[in-house]
Amino acid sequence: MPGSETAVGLRGLRKEFGPVTAVDGIDLEVRDGEFFAMLGPSGSGKTTVLRMIAGFEPPTAGTIELGGADVTRLAPFERDVNTVFQDYALFPHMNVLANVEYGLRVKKVPKAERRERALAALRSVRLAGFESRRPAQLSGGQRQRVALARTLVNRPRVLLLDEPLGALDLKLREEMQVELKELQRAVGITFLFVTHDQEEALTMSDRVAVFDRGRIEQVGTPAEVYERPATAFVAGFVGTSNLIAGAAAEKLLGRSGTYSVRPEKLRVVPGADALAGPDERSAAGTVAEVVYAGPATRFVVDLDAGGRLIALQQNLQVSSMEVLGLRGARVRLVWQRRHEFAIT
Amino acid sequence: MSRAGAFLHRRAGVRLALLLSAPLAWLGLAYLGALAALLVTAFHSVDTFTGTLNRTFTWANFLDLATGEVYRTIVLRSVGVALAVTAIDLVVAFPMAFAMAKLAGPRTRRWLVIAVLTPLWASYLVKAYAWRVMLSSGGLLGWGFGLTATVLTLAYLWLPYMILPIYAGLERLPGSLLEAAGDLGARSWQVFRTVVWPLTFPAVIAGSIFTFSLSLGDYIAVKIVGGRSQLIGNVVYDNIGAAGDLPFAAAVATVPVVVMLGYLAAVRRTGALESL
Fold this sequence. Notes:
Low-confidence stretches of chain A: none
CATH superfamily of the largest domain in chain A: P-loop containing nucleotide triphosphate hydrolases
Shape of chain A: elongated
Number of helices of chain B: 12
Oligomer: heterodimer
Radius of gyration of chain B: 23 Å
Order of helices and strands of chain B: HHEEHHHHHHHHHH
Strand order of the largest sheet of chain B: 1-2
Mean pLDDT of chain A: 89
Number of strands of chain A: 18
Number of strands of chain B: 2
Radius of gyration of chain A: 24 Å
Distance between the termini of chain B: 38 Å
Helix content of chain A: 25-40%
Structural class of chain B: mainly alpha
CATH superfamily of chain B: MetI-like
Mean pLDDT of chain B: 86
Number of domains of chain A: 2
Largest interface: A-B, 24 and 17 residues
CATH topology of chain B: MetI-like fold
Number of domains of chain B: 1
Strand content of chain A: 25-35%
């Protein structure tokens, strides 16, 4: 369980590459034992932040603290963090065991102890028996687990993961999400991982920081970030944005400003004149597009009041034939008032 | 035309044969043919009085070569020079190649590559004489001539042939491997010893084959800056020119070939040739 002590503290962190500002003044606290995600589109600065924490890039300004100690000027080998690289960066000329032992070997840990710890690390990622394989003889998922074992064997204070599942196919990625989460609980090490995949960030992490253009837009639990996005960017990047703005907001909600409702919170009712309950709100519109996706269907609805909303409906009873027939139909979207939120 | 194109598209084998026929013919005739002729000539002899070629088979040239004290000295000296040149080039080339491949930005890298290549565009003789001027008693260095001067000159001449393969090898080495090693606690020299060196060793071998074989066959640099010392190449040259003993020259010329074959066989056991 996440403790109250700070594992990683970033203060006023900046990084400029020539004229480009990659990281534009970031303050962040990651607590001990937390599974923390840095989420954002490519070029948002999240990987640069990770590389600065690892010590691969010196910051232009600001400080980095690990467990309360300032490590801003320390070399990578002097920092109590380890990194799982996006391409895994396994040493191709060493077998699995030598890869996992590497960190202990360069730190002159006695042979018997490092063998024992490496074998334990390999067992923890379910790779016992693979010791003498070369990285080239492993599948993507197995390489990923060797990379994990190679870092965990050093028992770092913080484990940094750079798009750890990016190179895996969908099925394996979903399995590894669960496995990573279990592993993190078992070892109790702070995991700080970078991803552009909002679903990955939401399913795995205790807290998420959403990055955009070198800044942090919002920090919160997955539920906070998803249900109560602080900015339009967060609303759009984490989930589908579904904005009600301008004239449509005045007409439907009786207020000016920009509001958002998540697609799964919208109910699609056939016929334009269905009635809404007391705590509900509704909007009439025309179905512009129907996207059948197996377990659910996505309706794109053009509102009479202006704008367009996307509604996600579970296919509890209907079949693809029935929902596809709704294209062009008049419908009413109904949602509970508590599910609409203002966006700044 | 388009029909021929379609035909070639379907027949990958024909395409390959068309592309390779000219270069393979060149290699077969000019290169292997010349080597075979060399080997055959080495077993002939020359009549000492009339100077005419006698084409009957004889081991005499190789026996002379094996028993002559002076030849053994020259062969050992030549191998020593080639090894020294290779060692110097390796020590100079590795940091240079590393800076080019891993530290320099794209612009600097381009300039460094050009800087390494430019000497190759200048004539060999010009460069050798430039070293003669530098090394002569009134020159910039003024160290005089001899074996050391020969080694220095050859190391300079063949340096690009060592830098370029190592540079290519280091470029293929993912930067994340170096970062991973540092991240896992390795200091710079440990990163070099455990990751960089083993993974670029094949490239080093490739470079050393160039510097070693080029040094072993050279006879011009040693003539220009070598003072009175002689290498295998000089013996070959003198037997062709002054002595007119072509068969003996051929026999001497097989020595570098045999040494190189031995070197390649040794290298092959390290597995370095597989990644060429």
